[in-house]
Amino acid sequence: MDKSRTQLAAPAAHGVGIELIELTKQYAGQRAPAVDKVSMRIAPGEMVMFLGPSGCGKTTTMKMINRLIEPTSGQILIGGDDVLRLDPSELRRRIGYVIQQIGLFPHMTIAENIGLVPRLLGWSKSRIAERIGELLDLVGLDPSVYRDRYPRQLSGGQQQRVGVARALAADPPVMLMDEPFGATDPITREHLQNEFKRLQQELRKTIIFVTHDFDEAVRLGDRIAVLRERSEIAQFDTPEKILAAPADDYVASFVGSAAAIRRMGLTSVADALRVVRLGPVSTPAHGITVELESSIRDAIDAMLRAGRTQVDVRAADGTLAGSLAFDQVCELWARAQAGEPDVR
Ligand SMILES: Nc1ncnc2c1ncn2[C@@H]1O[C@H](COP(=O)(O)OP(=O)(O)O)[C@@H](O)[C@H]1O
Ligand SMILES: [Mg+2]
User: Fold this and answer.
1) What residues have a C-beta under 5 A from ligand 2, the ion?
2) Per UniProt, which keywords does this protein have (predicted)?
């Protein structure tokens, strides 16, 4: 990681840390709390990844920090101030929020979507217009092209960029990002991750970023909080330390399956033919094909996107070599996880 550049670019004005003190949420009618006495400190300008399974309380925690959900007990400090005592406009100034389902308003233009919070904060029209142009440039969308379009006229990846621009609109020192790139395909996701990483090196916001993708956590995080049920922190450390020394079996299972996924990304269908035999080409052909040189991970993605359990495999000369079934991928997966050398 390029830490030297990062530190040079750190603007002093954004030095706002976050502290959670025994933060707890007990939803009415639920047996156990969704979030149970979570305490952590996040340094100014630090990007912390919350990594944990669905239902472990990540969104609840984010929404408490943002005051969309009232904590049952505990405290949240932002820049040393108790969030529960901030007035709503001060809260909007301090915290930008990007949610999983993008959340752009379909009947508003891109410019209107991005200008939402500045408008609430009472900025002048000219200042808002200027800021919108600046932000569209920042996230790599030409303002003259995209300003007046509607969300439905943009691709998923472009909409996510607008989501990020909107959260940055009032230049908040803190950003909460709840699986912001979760809904995009793997290639778009990687683009967005790389762009966002570059952006963060310039902006040095204090960020909590929720993900259930270990690779994303490793790629983006200064530190990763591996969470289990009720947001209990299983390990909170740098990606390097977590990879090198997982605290327990639970953390190791994230690291382990991520390593297997990485291996699947490095294993081509052609490599896999040393272990499995392709079946006959699907009849009728489904039109879902991958190349022999595609990775197994690409093959899985193609199946998931098409909702099929089989893909046809095309050889370099354009002919169909056979089909790869989901069951075969599972077999490869099991072997890769067991660390079998011929499945890399
Ligand atoms: N409004 C709600 N009322 C009752 N239970 C809820 C509510 N929202 C979430 N929960 C429960 O709290 C737990 C944590 O949910 P959530 O914070 O959404 O998890 P995550 O974002 O990690 O998937 C889950 O068991 C969920 O069912
Ligand atoms: Mg969630």
Assistant:
1) 59
2) ATP-binding, Nucleotide-binding, Repeat, Transport
| Residue spans per domain, the chain | 3-252, 267-343
Specify the CATH number for 3-252; select among 3.30.230.70, 3.30.1390.20, 1.10.287.70, 3.40.50.300: 3.40.50.300
Query: Does the Cβ of 27 fall within 6 Å of ligand 1?
Result: yes
Q: Is 53 in the pocket of ligand 1 (CB under 6 A)?
A: no
**Amino acid sitting at position 115:** G
319 Cβ closer than 6 Å to some ligand 1 atom: no
CA 59 to ligand 1 centroid distance, Å: 7
Instruction: Please work out whether the CB of residue 60 comes within 6 Å of at least one atom of ligand 1.
Output: yes
Which ligand has the shortest distance to the CA of 55? 1
Distance 200 CA to ligand 1 centre (A): 29
Question: In which residue are the tokens 């959900």 written?
Answer: 69
Q: Splitting the chain (344 residues) into consecutive groups of 10 residues, what average pLDDT does each group show?
A: 40 74 96 96 96 93 93 96 89 83 86 92 94 92 96 90 90 91 78 88 93 89 95 94 90 81 80 84 75 87 81 90 86 70 51
d(CA 211, CA 175): 14
The secondary structure of 315-336 as a DSSP string is: -TTS-EEEEEEHHHHHHHHHHH
Coil, strand or helix at 15: coil
